[in-house]
Each structure stands twice: as structure tokens, then as C-alpha cells.
Amino acid sequence: DCGKPNTNVERPLISHGTKTEVGEYPWHAGLYLRIKGIWEHACGGTIISPYIILTAAHCVYEETVEKVRNARDMKVAVGKYRRDWNVIDKYEQRLDVKEVIPQRAYRGKSNSYEQDIAVLDLEKSIVLSMVVLPACVDWLAEGNFYLGMLGTVVGWGLNENKTPTEVLEKTRLPYYDYDSCRRESPPEFLRFITYDKFCAGYSNGTGVQPGDSGGGLTFVRNKQHYVYGIVSLKLRNEDTFAAFTNVTEHIDWLENVVKALKPHHSN
């Protein structure tokens, strides 16, 4: 079972006009990095199986030294509602990362953030429940998209006051295909709209913010949420749309990674 959102799980909270409920988006994961001995929230991710988190490669890559971060300096939290590592939520599970697998050709900014996709293989299986559940993956690439089609992104990014949100927030964003995205983008952003990107967002500031990076953009098919995008990047000072890694462009790679990891998973 995958991609089933929950409603009425717990009392709703309102944050900056964005209503989110505990467990409403059960596939969302938080990626925490150990920085100078302290665990800090760095990125979002999407559960796609009990052992596998899908995220952005830039979340696991150290740009300054051009290498992948050590898995020992990462932890994943699922079933988490409040961003703070020191706050343990009712349904929260914390997991160690066994292996980090970014797309082979990812090289960060020097390669325009092309192939900004990565898999985290967990040490132990996530215990699935109503409030912790994978998103669906469209392995057959059957999704049809049109300009303005609304997808959902959740995360603990910065709110409109530029402070990190303490609880998980959701936003629905309209889809822009690759060509529309390039047409609407300012010149300095164009080189980051690589072949494997699409865009989503509004010009009024409703969109993704730093901290939402790596989280999934889901679209509903047959009443189930499928992850089609991964939050990749946006213009630093512009409240316009963001670029998302197009999961479908990497579906063969992802399928091969998942297959290769399967024998290591005990259930």
C-alpha cells in the first residue's frame, strides 16, 4: 500500500494559513546531519519502501570537497511532525543510514545540479503504519501532466518571515513543464533548468523554501500520491517557482538501485 494520505489522524494545527495534520503525509521523511556534534535538520525526503528514502543529491553531497557525505553523519526521522531533533513526536521513528547512493554523474553546481537525486538505504526497516507509509512510485512512467496541474509538497522550510517552520507544512503548487519553465525563468536561472527538471510554484511567494530541499512533490493518481518531483533548487532571493528533479527521467536508475539493494533487506 502506498500514497494514501490521512485525515482526522490528530487535531489539526494551523500555521501561516497552511493546515497540516499529524500523519497527514505519512511518506515525508526528515534528513538530519551531524554538524559539529549537533544533529540539525538539513533536508526532506520521501519514503518509497521500508528501507529506502528518496531525496536530492545536493542534500548528501559536500560541495566544498566534492564528495558524498559520510552515512554515519546522517539520520532519518519518519512519522515526525515537529522539526526540532530534540523534540520526539508520538509516532516518530529514527533510523541510521547504511548507504548513500547519489546519481552517478551528480557534481553539484559545477554541473548545474543535473541529476540531483539520491537514495538513502536505511540500516533497519521502517515500521509501517497509518502514519508512516511510502509514497507510490510510477515505475511504468504512465503519469500525464498538464500546465497548472497541482502537486503537493510538504516540509519544514522557511516561512514568509524567513524563520524555519516548527511543524510540517504543506503547499500545493502548479506544474510547469521543462519548456514553460525555461521560458519563464530569469537568465541566471536558465542553466539550472537541465533536461531532468520541471518547475512548480507561484510568483506570489507561495512555494518551496530552503529546508524543503530533497522533499517530494506528489501528484494524485487513482486517489494515491505518486512522487514525481524532488525539490532541487530555486533562485536565492526570488519568490518564484522552484526547479524539481523529474523522477521519471531517472526511473531506470532508481529501479536498478532498488533491485540491487533488495537482497540486503531482510523482510
From TrEMBL:
It comes from the Eukaryota. GO terms for biological process: proteolysis. Keywords: Disulfide bond, Lipoprotein, Receptor. One of its GO terms (molecular function) is serine-type endopeptidase activity. Residues 14-259 form the Peptidase S1 domain. SUPFAM superfamilies: Trypsin-like serine proteases (SSF50494). The keyword Disulfide bond applies. SMART domains: Tryp_SPc (SM00020). It holds the Pfam family Trypsin. InterPro entries: CLIP_Serine_Protease (IPR051333), Peptidase_S1_PA (IPR009003), Peptidase_S1_PA_chymotrypsin (IPR043504), Peptidase_S1A (IPR001314), Trypsin_dom (IPR001254), TRYPSIN_HIS (IPR018114). The keyword Kinase does not apply. PANTHER family: GH08193P-RELATED (PTHR24260:SF136), PTHR24260. This is Putative low-density lipoprotein receptor-related protein 2.
